[in-house]
Amino acid sequence: MEAMQYLSESPDSINSSSNDQPVSNRNLNRSQRIAEKEKRKNEAEDPFVAAVKYFSDVEAGTPVMGNDVFEGNLVVVEKVAYAEGLPPDAISVMLEFAMSLRMGTSLCPRVLKCLIPATVVPQDAVVRAVAWLGVSKIPISTQVLFIKWVLTVFDMIDAKDQLRAIYGFIFSFVTEENLCPFICHLLYLLTTKQNVRVFRIRKLLDLQDRLGKQPFLLHLLSLYKVFCPELVTLSVPSRMKRGFRNHNSPWKSALAFVQKKNSAAIAPSAGVTLTIKDQSNRRKRKHCHLELPVLTCALNKESQAELSSNRKLVPLAHLRSFAELLENMHRIELPAQMGSLLSTSVALHYLDCVQEESALLRLNFWLGYTLREEFLFCRDGGATQNSDEALQFLNRLLCAHQFLQEGFSSSEGFLYKFLTVWDGCLMRPQILGLLSNIPVVPSYKMGQLLLEPLKQLYFTSSPFFKCGLLECLNGMLRNWLTWHSVYALEDNMDISISSHTSIYMTLSGLKDSVSQLVQFVDHLAVVGLQLESCHSLLLNFILDFYETVCDMFLKYGLPLVVLPSPGVFYPALLATDPVSVDRLAYIMHRYKVNLAFAKSQLKITEAFRISRQTFSDFNHYVVDMVNFLWNAKAFQSGVNVQLDEGILQRSKVPECSTSFDLVYHPAFMSYAIDFHHKCWPERKELDLSSIKHVKPWSWYVEYLFSQGYDGLELFKRTNINRWQPVKGDKEDSGTMQL
Amino acid sequence: MSLLKPFSRRPALNTATILLVEREEEFQQRLAEVLVEETAVTLNVRLAKSLPLPFENQHSRPRIDLVVFIVNLTSELSLQSARASLKYLDPGYFLGKVCFMATNARNAAVPQERLDTLRGLAASLRCTLLFAEDQTADGATNASERLLTILKVAAGLVPMTTALYLSNLTMCTVPSNTNEVDFD
Asked: Which sequence ranges are marked TM in the entry (chain B) (predicted)?
């Protein structure tokens, strides 16, 4: 709707504005005069110009029947209109002629049907024609036809400011039953926040009582609700029928033909340099929502020139750089189509810093509608969904999200809906990208909106989807934590994630949400590892997530420490690849640093209380880790992994307690063998146990650290006080005391 | 009335059998073509328009590990047919060996009520409800991958897990208020 093909400024208007300028050069003046004369001569010969002149001068009350001059002229105009479209001034003349009923009512529809603009439609003409609606006795069917025509060419009207100025006048036509659907559509396109008034809402609600829940009324009301939620209490069904049909049937084919023919001529002059959109592969679709409109200004040059003296508004499209934006920040004129904001960085900057909400409201409304129509209730059942157009659109949206570092609320709502019917494959990178940008979800509705559908997708999909989803949730958590660290206020610890999204959340609310998310991912991780039999890739994505989690306190200032479940800890500790063990060691090191910091803070203020259970769980993990890797006492501390002695014996592994130390651990054994070769090159027999003597052991550990296992080194430094790995001597693990 | 029973036969080694039930017989064919490309296990794909299955082949029929009802949401008959077929399944199947696959869920022509009914049906039987994009090749591949994930568990080929366990994790739930979710 808003995103219909938008023609850029007409070359005519540029010419005319240049004509206004005084030309001092005498020669130029003369040559212009000659050109002018030439033009006039041509005009006299051109039957089209003559015909238009006839219609502008024709007297009221001229008979139609048997009037050959009239018939001939109209045929000329029609021929031009259907062949190449009418220029703006001809549109003005013909519209004025038709709507003033100078030659009766019967002609009106015929003239309206041939009003096919070649470039733009002058706003003045439309305003004058709307005025005629009020004074002359135009039959209802013709009035409907006229409004349909306005809707069809809406995006070609060169400016909308005067049309907006007569909003109230246009609104008064809603009571006319036959006009109502079309007037509603027109109002829908024109509405700004200032137009939403209580008396208008009341009128629409009255109409709704009389006519029933008509989709066109609902759509207009829902737009009002978007602008002024406090005024409209009506509940709008989430799934509305397509409210406004395409009314352009009488003009559609002719318009498409003319545009196609003219597009080659117009494209070079459409010089909005900042746009990213590629002009060449523009494709006309039945409902081309997904094309981001080119950013064009709502005002043409002349009216802009005259307006700039009194209202001082600067169209966003005229700004080229960030510096210009800063200068004109207070007097920006928004484009007619909000979707175009997504395509330029200046517009995104504007969205980012603007305090006034109407730009975001309009953008959100358009976006929400577009996403819903294109991805949730597709007309063709989604056959064209993987098209480049859809991908490009979502990528653009994703870029805008990443640029603004926050999501739009309409795309959030869309995602919740989409997840419940998603197959897990369609546009996966885009959907997961958008998902990781959603703002903090309050914990009480997180389960139903987000976690439940994700869980059902996760457990039925391939390990690669699992990895992708974990990465996405990791990004989501990082975003939430970043928002917290940026927006958290010192005293009342509120998180108010920017003025736009209007999410106000107390610190405890945020902590609830974050811990619910972490617990959810923990659950996904534990069961995922079990189902995929400890898939290494999956394990690495899980450890990625915990690298974010372990640093929540120090890095992001959120006083919350959540430890991984044993179902994550032990698979990582006993993993067959050394990288996982090393990363786990790093994570445990960071936990230690965070907990130590929390403990030191606790002495100062009581606000950072970490539960005793967390400290005790952490200590168990550290003791186990040191016992497994350094002390060769696997399965002996027995708090988390309690294995019956009998079972261990039945496994018939000799000395199974030593089989996970740094020498015999399946992840490190290759290093042990390598070290053995380097240390004792003369030895023929491999005797790994000799590494465990004091000297070689310390060399071996140093050797491991030198191989890039920084996590282990850090872990050793923070958690192991003294290490004398003589057999039987216990290493002291630096557990935390409360 | 002959019930289809999940444990009437012994399982064969490294073999899984899936039964695709679809009234329209469109998507099942394409799914089957993708499914049989699986090489890690011996995979039998059986197709049916509806249940009960014909009596004649009963003896040659292998043990069916997973029954999938493909429901085309644009047709009410499709849903009715799946619902009518359910009663020819032994209750043992509902311990994780039945799942629903909905197609066309994003079509504008689908009334919300039908989707809700299907969701309710799947939730009441504690079954998994998958959504699939039947129009595209990618959609069919992905749908078959997801079915394989479930099938391998249902056929007992994944250690440490059972069909009942997986279906507990993935079973469909009915949101308390489907229509008026409050996003503010």
From this structure: none
